[in-house]
Amino acid sequence: MISDTLRHFQQQYDVxxxxxxxxxxxxxxxxxxxxxDAVLVVDREAEAGGILLQCIHSGxxxxxxxxxxxxxxxxxxxxxxxxxxxxxxxxxxxxxxLTAGAAGGKRLKVMSGAHGVQxxxxxxxxxxxxxxxxxxGAIRIPGTRPAGVFTAGLAQKFVNLMxxxxxxxxxxxxxxxxxxxxxxxxxxxxxxxxxVFEIMPHANGLNRNIxxxxxDFEIPLYLSTTVVAIHGHERxxxxxxxxxxxxxxxxxxxxxxxxxxxxxLSIGLIPDNELAHQLRLRMDPVTSGPMxxxxxxxxxxxIFACGNTVHIHDLVDFVSAEAALAGANAxxxxxxxxxxxxxxxxxxxxxxxxxxxxxxxxxxxxTLYLRVRKPLESCVIRFFTVxxxxxxxxxxxxxxxxxxxxxxxxxxxxxxxxxxxxxxDVVAR
Length: 429
Fold this sequence. Notes:
Elements: E1 12-18, H1 22-33, E2 39-42, E3 58-60, E4 69-70, H2 71-84, E5 88-90, E6 93-100, E7 106-112, E8 116-127, E9 131-133, H3 136-139, E10 149-151, H4 152-162, E11 169-173, H5 177-188, E12 192-197, H6 207-214, E13 221-222, E14 225-231, E15 238-243, E16 256-259, E17 262-265, E18 269-271, H7 274-278, E19 303-305, H8 316-334, E20 344-348, E21 352-356, E22 359-360, E23 366-372, E24 376-384, E25 390-399, E26 405-409, E27 421-428
Parallel strand pairs: 1-2, 1-8, 2-5, 8-19, 10-17, 11-12, 11-17, 12-13, 20-27
Antiparallel strand pairs: 3-4, 6-7, 7-8, 9-18, 14-15, 15-16, 20-22, 21-23, 23-26, 24-25, 24-27
Helix pairs in contact: 1-2, 1-8, 4-5, 5-6
């Protein structure tokens, strides 16, 4: 068991990372590389690696490792790199509480089967708990409550890790990446996939997954269509689907019923942030994650965050890049060597849902991540001051809500800007 890699357990650490997925492992590795002597990763699963362990398909690591890997291969590489740096790893453990500690540090109450309930003092903490799936209750689908309704991630775990098929004829609601990948996976296992139904007029998964998982396997994708009822008592027997209008209201006169025994829900992810709320961190209402500075520090000194805890990522490679920044700055925080505070706040403007980080500094380079609200071709990203003065612009070939835009913001872009607020727009040329 990977939990055996905990060579010694101590009550004092320089940096404690909560979460053992790619974000947590990447942050721990960076913290060690930047001077933190004692680093602990706490993960609630039996093995570190996070969601990657059940993502047996390829497509990971092209940016971070320069080659295409499966999810478990990516997780194994990051884990090996982390353990080589003498990072302590505590699995099958849960952080019950996180409060202020002595001398500006943090105190964690951790529960595990191996060590019971322990109090751990940390100089700084990195939140890397990932995200969880939205369930049927989040969108209130009418109908009965039979067996056979799964989130796409749970079905993926059943098929890839446990060897169980969720059913024989499936309908998939939502076009998130996990749903698209599971459509292909189920088809490969002999399950009849009746179709993928998406309430929005555009798909919410990466274009490569739409092509490789649906089009290549002739699985139909119905846009502007949703499930309006679930039928069955002991087991799902059928679902009723209907097109929606511009206000996303179902048009029941055009509804039809599809016989099936399984409904998979791929309706989005929610950052796992109970601890962030408990700490009363400043939260972004759009991402549901903590607001962070360019150093990935939250609104509370010494608390850093990265990965899907902050906002939902498309690629694990971007998670690793963000984690490296958070872990490095968590170590710098201990040495009192953090860069000067940010002096510019970014505000989402036209066709921009959110920006991360939420603040930047004009004297150093940053990577800005953002998502748009609607797809555009031949567009431009622009930075404006409060009074409407254009500071910087860059042409883009296209933008798509399902694909995160990342942009290098260099000091020369903002050299003539002397305010404290920038609006970010993405508009047609």
